[in-house]
Amino acid sequence: MATIADDKRNEILLAVADAIIANKERILRANTEDLAKMDPKNPLYDRLQLTDKRLEDIATDMRNVSKLPSPLGHILKESTLPNGLRLKRVSVPFGVIGMIYEARPNVTFDVFSLCFKSGNACVLKGGKDADYSNRAEVDIIHEVLEANGINRDVVTLLEATHEATAEMLNAVGYIDVCIPRGGRKLIDFVRDNAKVPVIETGAGVVHAYFDEFGNLEMGKRIIDNAKTRRVSVCNALDCLIIHRSRLDELPALLEPVIKKNVEIVYDDFGTEFMDYKMAVKVVDSIDEAIEHIAAYGSGHSECIITDNKDNATKFQQLVDAACVYVNAPTSFTDGAQFGLGAEIGISTQKLGPRGPMGLEEITTYKWLIEGEGQIRN
Asked: Residue 354 — φ and ψ, nearest 5°?
């Protein structure tokens, strides 16, 4: 994988993107079989569902990844020591990335495109809810790889079983890093049971704080977009925090989401709803808002709506999250929106990558040292 020329990688990614469009009916038939097993009222149904438009967007994202500069071979640091040794720190692939995900068939294509572009092989473990869709997608990828003389095993889909999950989590020496993408229960299970290194992604308990200096019309747009654009995704708004001085404007602030049948609750904090449901918390100060986020947030995405620059700066400095917004909705937390082409996940941890993970975040580095026969005293 590491020796394939970048031009060849891009050629194959474009071929897979074309194959997605050419095989849309095949993929959608498989997806229909998965959808038939799930209650349409389940919040995960929207994540599971593929459409013509969503497949076109997936293909577009893959083409965008092919246009990005290669993340490999970058000289990150370079120096010459007093003894004449020349040092370079150079970006290289991780090697083999294991990916565990739930009812998200788009992840199959996204992970393949990013891993292939960055020189990584990938072992995929999808959920049983999306198994027909995932298998159809991997079959299409394998057909393109074989047509281009690339070993199909650079993308491997495991069985959708608990035993396969356990095997992946214990694959020391075979899998270099495992990335779970799903709800809190999945992420906690992977972190608690893995013997291979783990990057935590996905779970999002997201807040928007409407400050005492917030613009009402702006707030209505931001809250509506953050909550209802897609309620099942991890960057969707879960809790609106409002300053008590603006409480009389709460009905107007909530009007757009109420029209879309969002249920409002005044407790249930710290819950990732993934549904048409949102909590509201009233606070007396920005400090109390920040304390609430510290207590109930997941480190994913948070936002403040304010015209006060000091409050905006304070919020961004003190809120501990991967992405902190001022006067913009958390719906922008997305690899494609950040110009990364696609994303392998959104990391909520602090060690290593944080936030949307693209090509650079799934590479590591090694030191290259050149000398002329020097020996150490």
From this structure: -140, 135
pLDDT digits 0-9 by tens, 36-58: 999 998 878 988 999 999 999 99
Where do we find the tokens 């040794």? Answer: 85
C-alpha triplet 280, 283, 288: angle, nearest 5°: 120
Read off the pLDDT of residues 215-265 as tens digits, 9 standing for 90 and up: 999 999 999 999 999 998 889 999 999 999 999 999 999 999 999 999 999
Amino acid identity of 345?
G
Amino acid identity at 293: I
The first and second tokens of residue 324, run together, are 């902190």
Closest alpha carbon to 316 in 286, 340, 339: 286
pTM for this entry: 0.86
According to DSSP, residue 209 is labeled E
Q: Tokens standing for 18?
A: 């074309």
DSSP secondary structure letters along 166-206: HHHHT-TTT-SEEEEES-HHHHHHHHHH-SS-B--B----E
